[in-house]
Amino acid sequence: MIEAIPQALSLIFTVEGMFVLTLGTMLGIVLGALPGIGSTVAVAMILPFTLTMTQAPAILLLLAIYAGSVYGGSISAILINTPGTPQSAATCLDGYPMAQRGEAGKALGWATIASVVGGLTSAVVLIFAAPQLAAFALNFGPIETFALILLGLTCIVSVSEGSMIKGLIAGFLGLFLSTVGGDPLTGEARFTFGNFQLIAGFNLLAVVIGVFALSEVLIRASAISDADNKLVKFSGIVLPKLSEWSGRVKGLIKSVLIGNVIGILPGTGAATAAFISYAEARRSAPTRDNFGKGEPDGLIASESANNAVTGGALVPTMALGIPGDAITAVMLATLTLHGVTPGVRLMSENPVLMAAIFSGFFIINLMLLPFGMIVSRLAAPILRIKEAYMLVMISLLCTVGVFFVRGNPFDLLVMALAGIFGFVLRRQGFPMAPLVIGMVLGPTLEISLRQGLIITDGSFAAFFTGHPIAAVLAVIALVMLTLPVIRFYRSKSAKA
């Protein structure tokens, strides 16, 4: 495939090729920045328009929408504390506090550089190591996936600010919500109480938008007054200086690696990578005490990881025909519609097309820097609107975005109830991040556990005795769970 890169570049550097990359990247950032749209909706919206295009431009257009929307979600997450995409939920934790301090431009600068580095690194990995990485992903069966999700659930401990007990309650609530609907193995309805609308379960996008966006609208609306109606100040992205990266490069590299590895594993996704990376940074970073208060290391961890997933997720999608996440599942349909069969022979049978896809993906991530600076400036007029009007606009965008996914009015009810529920919980000091983590990881945790039990004839101990990868992941998860306890007792003894 590397030998076909010169020929692939001749296809990209044409008027049509550059137009597609430019339009797709710009449009992806805009759609990602709009609360309620999300990457999956953005890609699905553009998919019908690719049917009149040839193979390479069509796939590159969706890749640009994909990568641009993942980055674009950080804009609304930082400026209005509303993640434009579920992948940007972790970005709110430190991005918005920075914006409240008057550092919105600097926060977006950190997020932009981290996103570009994460995306470019994943593109390089794809170009030079896609076949080997695809082969490694085959080693992860249900048991290894279950151990990975256990490791991911340790994020709940790290993101439970104020009260670990409340964070754990919110996390278990998210796990419970993920079990509502049809049983993944038997199809039997669970916790539906006779309501056929619940057979498909709760729409994750509707819940995420509800507990983050609508609850934020309700909290702001309850506090609006003439004396306190200030919006965050933003006049453009401010890129961090080289001196400010001192001590942060190691965390950036670690987060990029986490994003790439998780992206390669089928069925995990950018939201999982962002939370796991954020939790690891909060555990190991020298500035961990400032996390949640507007710490750039938190932004670097979440944004570099979720953008690194975009490239990693393409490995199982292209090489194995297994979607790395929901967005690449939509892209599988595009490949099929354009006469390309995803699978183990894709790279050998279509070397020029694959080289064009990976080279174009590299260029797309380069474009995130200049186009991100342009699009983020367009968000400034929105912030100058009176807060009451902006809250109405956010609510309308969330409503349209959630309804557009499936056209199901029941999703709007779920969003509204999630918003009210999130508002009540947040007023009582419950963090919302653990709830989302539980919902994101719950389905994969359940199905991998039950498949693993079938493989081992019901022996849970066999998960870790005959599967070294699962055993290593379980040990890491155990260490990450015990470290906060050890740290707590050490600080307690030090005070004594």
Strand order of the largest sheet: 1-2
Largest sheet: 2 strands, antiparallel
What gap, in angstroms, lies between the N and C termini? 63 Å
- The overall pLDDT, averaged over residues, is 78
Counting structural domains, the number is: 1
> Looking at the chains present, what oligomeric state does this protein adopt?
single chain
What would you report as the Rg, rounded to the nearest angstrom? 22 Å
Q: What global shape is seen? A: globular
Low-pLDDT ranges: 226-230
Strand content: under 5%
Helix content: over 70%
Give the SSE string: HHHHHHHHHEEHHHHHHHHHHHHHH
Q: Please identify the structural class as seen in this structure.
A: mainly alpha
Number of helices: 23
How many E strands?
Answer: 2
Keywords: Membrane, Transmembrane, Transmembrane helix
Protein name: Putative tricarboxylic transport membrane protein
Transmembrane segments: 20-47, 59-80, 107-130, 136-157, 164-182, 194-214, 256-279, 352-376, 388-404, 410-425, 432-449, 469-489
Domain DUF112: 19-437
